[in-house]
């Protein structure tokens, strides 16, 4: 059994893994959650282990364990921990370790990072939460690539986030609206936008109070790809060139010219109709017809010339056709593009995050090309199963980027693992000339761990965005370690807002409080705003009705409050909603 933490004691956490997520999760648990953390890494000299040590946090201990077993976990304090997080990028290893923890310490809360959703469903139970870091990052990256708002479902409503790149919007705008577009709630308020002093707060915006830029963002997408759009004749020619090569087009052109020259010659010599002359020219060229002894001498000479030329041309055409069939089959087997693409998105890197991005784009009807240097990458099979074109090659090379039609793409998303590789690909993509009918600039979205580096890249590369998947996912993993589910995360300047559902426990500070007590703006960025709540008094007979926060109804035990908050605000709400017995068993820090 995991012993309960007494009042006034620091909650202890164990983090197993070595990577960006382990670093950000450790920092959140130690600084914001005021807990003590032991991190198990395979090599204490690795980059992220050193990053953790350089934080200089007093209650963080980094231990080296080549193999994480029962002894290593005991040394890390798993027997006295409130929760453990398994954040390695190894589904099998994380599952095995989660089963070991369940066997040794059944009361321990375990948070597991798993990409395979079906595997995660079998593992999840009341003391084990399964999360995917890519699930939190993919929507934001897709929205950045498409320059569109991100829509996140919240029960019967949706949360809409609007990019902060519009000149009229000096801060990020977050909207909460019903499916019909009514009852809009905006972050920040119109007054805050006007005074250029926006806060991380939500405020009601009634009819006529919504900014025009915001109103347009709430309209349905009108740029979905039409799968039945008309293709230009030039596209058909380029498709034929891709599948069969330009030699087939050249061979066909030579054969047509030979036949036409012969037909014109026969027409001029005999005065026959063009169709009749064409008939006389085609037969010796393609069918090897019997000679006509009574024909005009010019016709005879022409037919002989056509027959001789066709003897050389026909085998060439046949060989080119066979080569084209073989080439097409190879392209089909590889899943490579079979026709020219334009206004599409190129996704480089088919790991967990890249695979989820490809799925999301494909579901939205956006043309996408996937690129990876490794043919055995996790996302290759997923992309091919969805008929998404795949290019195998080094994306730092121009030939690979041209094969993905980067010059005609609207955006390139680079989610490779190495920082130098990511930057190299972005520069290589910018060097590809833009196609005639392509968007004027290539949108570049990069996965970058270092946020300072992301800002420098943005200054260096026009129309680029640097995002960190671990930055977006860490608050959700940290919240899960105190038993709090996070629906979604939203980047806001140097912070991450979380969308969460808080359940009011009997005897808690929120038991009997009003909805206004859920929203607050405390010093130190502990901020929260209530979006809506489910009342148990009505859900039993009214099907779980959603009430507006402005109605000021009291909160009762079992009510669920839907909030958007900073991490510190979520911790504050979690403490307010927890019963005294829960707080005594699992202390929750309130430091930001």
Average of per-residue pLDDT values: 73
Biggest sheet layout: 6 strands, parallel
**Helix proportion range:** 40-55%
Please state how the strands of the largest beta sheet are arranged side by side: 3-2-1-4-5-6
CATH architecture of the domain at 1-131: 3-Layer(aba) Sandwich
What is the overall shape? elongated
Cα(first) to Cα(last) distance is 31 Å
**C-alpha-based Rg, rounded:** 32 Å
What percent strand?
Answer: 15-25%
**Unreliable runs:** 1-8, 163-173, 175-237, 539-545
Task: Quote the CATH topology of the domain at 1-131.
Answer: Rossmann fold
Q: List the quaternary state of the chains.
A: single chain
Structural class: alpha/beta
Question: Count the helices. How many?
Answer: 21
CATH level 1 class label of the domain at 1-131: Alpha Beta
Number of strands: 23
CATH superfamily label of the domain at 1-131: NAD(P)-binding Rossmann-like Domain
